[in-house]
Amino acid sequence: MQTDETIEEKRVKSIFGAFILLARKGFIDCDRFTLNASLLKLTVKHYSRNLKALKIRYGIEDNAQPQKAAGFITAAIMKFRPVLPKNGSDGNLFHGDENEVLAAFHGFCICAEQIDGKIDLPQVVSLWSKPEFGEWLKNFIYLLRFGDYTAESLVLSFDALARFAK
Fold this sequence. Notes:
The chain is mostly helical. It has helices spanning about 5-25, 35-60, 65-80, 100-110, 120-130, 135-145, 150-165; strands spanning about 35, 85. Helix 1 crosses helix 4 (about 100-110) and helix 3 (about 65-80) runs antiparallel to helix 4.
């Protein structure tokens, strides 16, 4: 079983990697937004503690299922919102959905993790390329931004998505 520090380090790297990939693909504008290191660490620490509690509650001895990790880290990203505007006085940035996009994409990447820990990016791209996925993503982002949900309900969303993606 991985230590808390190992899990936290892995998640910091994976969120940062997802942020960079989203920026390269034009989903996040790095001229206007940044990933705040302090909030990222706080996000991952919160996730790690909640995941540990989940494992105790359900008697999970090994790694949690990817869908569980995806749901819990997505909830943590939405709680601490580590993607921040570079210019805090730009009123147009308030309506952005960068944190929601990061949370959703990172969750999908976790669900596509292979046994060796690498992300099956072709699987993620294949999912994002499906015609019906755009509407699902729009609704999921709306849920993350305005809806009432728990980390456990997000686990179910990722579980269903992972099953339909195959």
